[in-house]
Amino acid sequence: MAHDTHHPGAVQDAPLWPWLAAAVTTLLGLAAWTQFSANPPVALQQLAKWLPTLLLGLGANIGISVLAMALGTVAGLLIGALSLSTMAPLRGATRVYVQVFRNAPVLVLVYFSTYVFPFELQLHHWRLPFPDWIKVVLGLALPASANVAEIFRGAVQSIPSAQWEAAQSLALSRRDIFRLVVLPQCVRRMLPPWMNLYASITMATSLASLVGVHDVVDAAQIASNTVSRTDFTVLIYATLLLLFFAYCYPIARATQALEARHARH
Amino acid sequence: MPAIDAPKNPPGKPAPTPLVSLRDIHLSFGANEVLKGISLDVLPGQVVSIIGPSGSGKSSLLRCITGLLRPQLGTITVGATRVDRLRHEAELIALRRRVGFVFQQYNLFPHLSVLDNLVLGPVRVNGRPRDEAEHQARELLQRVGLAHKAAAYPGELSGGQQQRVAIARALAMQPELILFDEVTSALDPETVGEVLTVIRELAEDGMTCVLVTHEMRFAAEVSDEVVFTEAGLIVEQGPAARLFGNPQQERTRAFLRRALGASLGSQSYAPDNKVVALPIDRFRFAI
User: Fold this and answer.
1) CB–CB of B120 and A180 under 8 A?
2) What is the CA A214 to chain-centroid distance, rounded?
3) Are A188 and B109 within 8 A, CB to CB?
4) Residues A22-34: pLDDT tens digits?
């Protein structure tokens, strides 16, 4: 964490709003053009028609990202805790897990989980369908958990040993030191990298379309094939970029804001 | 120093029982022997200052007393507790409830307010009701002149203020003894005085204190006993007036000339920002 250049108001001063203003102005301008022009460009007319489909698709991406991150966080914290264990074999196993899944291309993991898991689970007479989107959630949760584990381990080890010493001198038990002194400081340190991770997982959800999930990329492909105009294809992918940007950029800004706030306290 | 292990009540002249008693302490980090046989007694209510060049093992000695470091050889007694024999966490906790420690780098908990830093130990360790602990914490903050900072976070305080909070935090545990490890060494010269004032008042109130310090004038003023260590050994010890006024050893004289000269030369306090590097990683816990 940077402890230097931050000062109160630094985040507010940073140029967040010009970007968003530009994006919103562009969208509004295009919308107005479509709405009020006697003869708006065909590509824009088509975009207006397809936008609801795109937004629904984006909903799928966001849903997948939230689920993958939730799963990855729970698993990652568990694995991270085990990676600090005093038992060497346990530590070794978690190291392998973390290294394997942090260093695997996400697309490979998505394909991997798609083909490894069955399309439905059968328990006696019960059939539990196992749709592709859940497999994508699992595929993304794997690298998420490995990264969360590493973030957690790093955070715990970044707490200065002087904090342990001070807490020991106050006669706190190991349990209390961990729970009341180390963990709360870890949460603060983990939050920014965790949010960064969430943003990259969100962007990685665009891979879902490759295994047949109807997400925003899939929606754009269908639209592009249906309309079949080069200018529309360019426009719809530009819109896709804008949508992802609009979702991920505020997360990145909030991350920086948190880092700045922690640097002050 | 042989035959210090005197019976508690020898016939004739009753000698006070030391609160802290070190006998022939040897401590090594790997091949590096930092303490080479230290013996020292601290009587209840006494203020003992340990002075000496940097790296002479002074801070390690304090850490041995509170069980943060374990000497390879020698015995440490605090009250009736044989510190060098403690193995279990519960035993160490029982010891540390009685021994306060104030660090060079304050080591406040940055995620807790000043008040919560003071309340944490009494509530979690001593099991006191929270409102009672808060009341006591506010009184202690008053005592160190920081009543108005109860709600502040450590990061919002100056070094001197943080160190006064750290002293109050140690006092909140109502210890029998407080160890001060170069508590002014990381401070700006202008804030050293406010911290020393707090310690001076504690000493006047009869708190047993062991100070590792580079503040020679302060040591001369508050100490009952001053111990000069060099290279892991006690070179000379005695009442402050004698050790500073009429040191017997040439090495003590040379050290005092340098130390007092330095603090005369600049401002009246010579900050020494050296951080004693200890392999305390060994003492970190894993879950």
Assistant:
1) yes
2) 19
3) no
4) 777 877 777 777 7
Quick one: which of A251, A137, A143, A235 has its CA closest to A192? A251
Q: Do A84 and B124 touch (CB under 8 A)?
A: no
CA B5 – CA B42 distance, rounded (Å): 13
SS3 A160: coil
A148 φ/ψ angles, rounded to the nearest 5 degrees: -60, -40
CA distance, residue B252 to nearest chain A CA (Å): 32
Q: Is A253 left (phi over 0), alpha (psi -120 to 50) or beta?
A: alpha
Contact B47, B243 (CB under 8 A): no
Nearest residue to B25 (alpha-carbon basis) of B17, B36, B15? B36
Q: How far is CA B225 from CA A72, A177, B125, B200, in A?
A: 60, 35, 32, 15
State the Cα–Cα distance between residues B259 and B263, nearest whole angstrom.
6
- Distance in Å, alpha carbon of B124 to nearest chain A alpha carbon: 7
Question: Which domains does chain A show, CATH number per domain?
Answer: 42-264 (1.10.3720.10)
For A35, phi then psi, to 5°, come to -75, -45
pLDDT digits (tens, 9 = 90+) for B171-227: 999 999 999 999 988 888 888 888 899 999 999 999 999 999 988 888 988 899 999
Q: Is A7 on the interface with B (CB under 8 A)?
A: no
d(CA B81, CA B78): 5
